[in-house]
């Protein structure tokens, strides 16, 4: 953890479905997670959608603590589906992101974003219509840029920052595996915890155990993944995340 991150707020990025699923228990878990984040004064980063578990989580976190505690990150191609009826505004998003991060506009650029001499962003926009309900939203040019920005913001967060996954489908699974793979490579040092409500993550947990047993995953890598039964337990796991994992440092050409 860099010295500069010690002065930053704790940030937890939550991966979740854009549908509600068939069980009301899943929705209750999303709201419980928002309440746990509020109780611990943790900022929420999420996928930027206003539907499903994702929307329920963000809306509850904003209701409890205000829109300044929430930032959503969504690829432009998904806005029509995951933010139906929203209005996109192209000006001012970058300055507002830097303000949210507490840094000067010219100190860095977000992954996948080019900053011109006037400080405006290319290929990215801010959505403002639902900001009072769902927090600040950043629209990225691609899924890869979305995940890179999520990892960057969490990596720069204060102690206890990390990643939590609620129930979801292919997209949620992809995000979980991205975080685990980049942690294994030493690109970041944050924890990934699953909220295993109604056994939703049993399949992935079984695969991890099988990969370890078959020799395709080193035993110590099992500890990269936390599994907890409730949202509150997952937040507590992140706050007390095990430190000292000796990640493999690989030389990777290009960006991961």
Fold topology:
Blueprint lengths: L10 E5 L8 H16 L3 E4 L5 H14 L4 E6 L3 H4 L5 E2 L3 H9 L23 E3 L3 H4 L1 E5 L2 H13 L6 E4 L4 H15 L6 E5 L6 H12 L11 E4 L2 H9 L17
Parallel strand pairs: 1-2, 1-7, 2-3, 3-6, 7-8, 8-9
Antiparallel strand pairs: 4-5, 5-6
Structure description:
The C terminus is likely disordered. Helix 1 packs parallel to helix 9. Helix 1 links the parallel strand 1 and strand 2. Helix content is about 40%, strand content about 15%. It has a 9-stranded mixed beta sheet with strand order 4-5-6-3-2-1-7-8-9, with helices on both faces.
Oligomer: single chain
Counting helices, strands and paired strands, the structural category is alpha/beta
- Using only CA atoms, what is the Rg? 17 Å
What are the secondary-structure elements, in order, as H or E? EHEHEHEHEHEHEHEHEH
The number of E-state strands comes to 9
Q: How much is the average pLDDT?
A: 81
Biggest sheet record: 9 strands, mixed
Task: Give the amount of beta strand, in percent.
Answer: 5-15%
How much helix is in the residues?
Answer: 25-40%
| Unreliable parts | 104-128, 242-256
The end-to-end distance, rounded to whole angstroms, is: 20 Å
Compute the number of helices: 9
The side-by-side strand order for the widest beta sheet comes to: 4-5-6-3-2-1-7-8-9
Shape: globular
